[in-house]
Structures are given as structure tokens and as C-alpha cells.
Amino acid sequence: MLAFIIRRISQAFFVVVAMVVLVFFGTYVIGDPVWMMVPGDATQEQIEAVRRDFGFDQPVYVQFFKFLGDVLHGEFGRSYVHGSSAINLILDRMPATLELALAALILAVLIGIPLGLFAGLKPDHPASRSIMAVSILGFSLPTFWVGLMLIMLFSVMLGWLPATGRGPVVSIFGLETSMLSLEGWRHLFLPAINLALLKISLVIRLTRSGAREAALQDYVKFARAKGLSQQRIVGVHILKNILIPIVTVLGLEFGSLVAFSVVTETIFAWPGMGKLLLEAIQRLDRPLIVAYVMVVVLLFVTINLIVDILYSALDPRVRLTGTQS
Amino acid sequence: MSSPVLVVDNLATHFFTRDGVVKSVDGISFNVMPGEVLGLVGESGSGKSVTGFSIMGLIDPPGKIVSGSIRLNGEELVGRDDASMRKVRGKSLAMIFQDPMMTLNPVLRIDTQMMEAVQAHEAVSDKAARARSAAALAMVGIPAPEERLSAYPHQFSGGMRQRVAIAIALLHRPALIIADEPTTALDVTIQSQILSEVQRLCAESGTALVWITHDLAVVAGLADRVAVMYAGRIAEQGRVDDVLDRPLHPYTHGLIGSVPGAHLEGTRLHQIRGSTPSLGQLPPGCAFEPRCDRAGPACSTMPVISQASDGRAYRCFNPVPQQGVTA
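YS: structure for the whole thing
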């Protein structure tokens, strides 16, 4: 177990190094950020001065090693636009995004697994057919359109829920969250549903196919032959078997929820990292982009590690060893 | 004479598939006395497993028990709802399955799977349920049962897993165990161990046994009586020595004749010509008629069940003359 984790962390280190190189040169070739920073009527001398100030006049490899040195000190540079530390900007916005992603994940599990189990165990029931039809919609409708429709229905027409922004936040253990107040949840609900819709559909389909497969297994028949109740068979024997693929997929999906909630955050004016990234790309804010990608890489690596550990908890046949990973 | 523990009377289980009705079991009757071992023999698709699942009430749609009666200790099982059937399953009626690799849930520990079986029928504490489970494991010959309880199924060999399944079946000392080819998936050496183990345990607890198999040798060594199934019907049944030594039905006769070792060395092994008919389109008369050497004109109508001495019954117009089996 420990050997497995150490091996995983060392693998993660190489992933991070590769990403640093890719991201640095990737953003380097997009364009010259100087033009975004100087006013339109700046003179050639002013432009050169800015370029020198930021070190853009240096050869690219010099810039790279300077950047690398900063990274090793945990410093991704200052945002060109905001003037403050890029990594701090992201970390400031991260709780909002994590909160949104977590809410979406919880909704996906709470709604997706029961509906999927029902559809899987009673495949011919009319309700199961409706569930599957709706899940196809969930897959195919574009997020931005659903977001707009949600706002129109629940905020504009019915006036039940606020359309934009984050509710009042409470700080616990140094983390700010809006999940502890009713007003916070009122703000959180629409964006979370919007973000969760695709994941709900995914969980429904995964759970359904898993349940259909498991229901035919001999161990289910044997459990019935033991005289167990239906709740026990579904809730323990079937569910524990189908959780394995669901946990794997949801782990990866959680990463993408955090990293790519850009559209939802933009529509609902949610003050998360996604909006920050969008602005950074528009303004060629190189340090901010790099810092963002680094945070996302670390996030994915961490989630994958957690998923692997969860895996061994769920499936006793999986043993985490240092040699085979 | 005591009353039978199980009475199956004219049972018919059909499967309503897209390609028509498949009559997997079509009008079979047999009794099992307390402590008796009944061998239910037949080739694949003859309906022997479906018979077992029908008794357990584990026939799922599109399958359905369409007629007949199954009485366990005098109580009717056909037509019960799932809740009342559940009280019987695992309590007075237990089942052992064919493939021990598949019958235990791979993600649950042995103790979980045994204790839940105890607590499904009796309100006992976890501690008591665990002690009962350990005792049951010890009974089927698993060493260090206390420690093995905390293991997962994949840490057991196939034979050990089947022992665990048998232990689970015996937990509530059922009146009847249905064993659906429980030794087919095992090595021959393990097979004989399991066989003698089951025989001993059932004799000790007075549990009756319906042993479903295609292996005549197993039946010969284990069963008191045997019922030979062909295409969803019982071709003949009776005491195991009578049926195997002096078969009445041509199918049984052919089956015994095609076992290697029962014929003279150097001669060609006897075989039944043709192949098993599709259950969706059986001939109107005797299902064995197209393959039968003794078939006559009468055989295109359904033979009735004829009784012979010693509780023997067969379904044939032209039974094999009684002279012992020859190759």
C-alpha cells in the first residue's frame, strides 16, 4: 500500500514536469502578451521598456529556466493583469469551484444511482423507459442552453431562485463555503443542477447497465436462495459490485467538473476558477494560465490516487502493490 | 410410513419467449421422503435445473409455473408471493449451485454472507450469528473456521467455496436441499470428497436431498431413488438400483448403454442417435420417439404414466423387456 502510494507520487512528479514544459511553451507561442498590457497609443520606447521589465526580451530558454526556478520555489509569477500572485488568485477562487463541483457530484450520486438501479432492475417498467429517455436528453442538451433555460424558468418566470452569483459564505476550518446557509443553497442549486445534469445521465446509464448485469449473476440468485430481503440484495450484494465502475468514472468526472466548469460559471456568474481561466486566456495572462493548468494537473493526480485507494476498499481482489500499478 | 417432505405434482414451468413457448418442465410428478436422496438425471436442457429453481420459487419472467403443485411438508409453495416464499427459502428449503466460483459474492467477506443468512430467518445477535457460522464451517471441514470467516471468497479454492455454500445451505437445518450439479465444476478428487461430505451431513441432520446431475455414476453412488428427465418430462423413476440395472424406458436404456465401461471392451460404444429436440417444438407424442429404436405407431400420442412394482413409474408404450442391461 505505502509502496504503491510512493510509486504513484513519483509517477505524478514526472507528469507534472512534462506538463510544466508543455504549458510554458504552449502559452509562449500563442502570442506576445505585451500588446495586451500597453495602451494602444504607446510609443516604441514604452513597449520596449515593458518588455524588458517582464523579461520578454530574453531568449526563450532563459525565460524557461527562470520560470522553472520560480516554480521550484512554488511561485508561478504574478498575473500580468491582476498584478498579484497567480497561484494565490487561483487558490482564492478554488473553494467556490470545489463547492460547485462537489454539489454537482452529490446530486449526480443521489439522483443517478437510485434512478439507475430502478431502471436496471425493472427494465420493462414504463418509468424505466422514461428515465432512460430523459438521460439521453441529459447527455445531448448543451450545458449553456440548459443553464439559460433553468434561469428563465426558475428565476425569471417562477422567481423561486436567484439567477446569478454566490450566496453568503461562512468560514469553517479556513475554507469558505456557502453550503451552510439556506440562502447559499438557493444560489448554489441552479448552477449545481446545470453542471450535474450530464453526470446524472452518466451515472444513471452506468448504474443501469451494472445492475442489469449483476442481477443475472449466480451470487444474486444464491442470495435470494438464502431468503434475503430484496433491499438487502439490491443495497448490499448488487450495489457494492456496481460501485466499482461508478467510483472510477465519477473520480475522473469530478476532476473535469472542477477543471471545466467554465460554461456554468460564466452563465451563472459564479465566482470560481473557471471564469478566471477564461479571462486569463483572453488577455494572454501567461502566469495565470500556467498556474491554473498546474493546479488542475495536481487535482487529477490526487483524484486518481484516491480512486485507486477507494478501489481496493471496494474490491477485495484488487491489491495495491508497488510493482503492478 | 412417514409422509413425504416434498411432493411435486404435475408441475409445468414454461418460458414465454419471443420465439414461442418453451416448455422446459411439462407435467412432472415426484415425491421425496424425509432423509431421502433423489437423483434428478438428464442431459443439458432436459429441465432438471428449471425443476430445481421452480421448487425454490426462483423462476423469473419470462418463465412461469403454469400449473401443478409443489408441497413442502404439506404446505403449498406454488402461487405464494415473494415475501412468504422468502421465509421458506434458506430456512426449510435450501439450494447449492453448480459453479462455486460464481455463487459467493466476490466483494463481501464470508462472515457477512453467512451471518446475513442466519439473520434473515432468526433475530439473533451478530455475535451469535458469527458463532453459528463458524460452527457451520467447521462442520463442512474447513480448518480454522474462525479465521477463515474474515476471508474473501477469492481467497478460497473452488472446493472450499462449495463447502462454504454447503455450510450456508445447512445453517438452518433445512428439510430439503436442492443441489444443482454442485460437483460438476470441481476436480474429480474434490468431487468425491464433497459427495461423501454431503451424504454424511444430510444423513446426520435428516435432510432430504434432490441431487441434480447428468452424471449417472454420481447418482449410482449417492441416490436412493432416481428420476430420469428427458425434454421436460420424467421418462422414468424408481429405486436407483432398479432403474440403473433394469431400465424400462428406452431413453434410460440408451443413456446407460452409452456410459463407457458398461460395454464390452473393443466393441463400439453405444450411442443414442439424433440429438435432443428443441423444447419450443416438441413432437405431439413422446418426445423421444424420433430417436427411439422401439418406437411404434402408438408413440405419436403422449404416453401416460404407467406404474410398475416397487414404486417405479415410466412414461412409455413399449418399455424395454426386463432382462438386465446389455451392451
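YS: worth flagging: Chain B touches chain A through 31 residues (CB under 8 Å).
IM: good catch. Also The radius of gyration of chain B is 21 Å.
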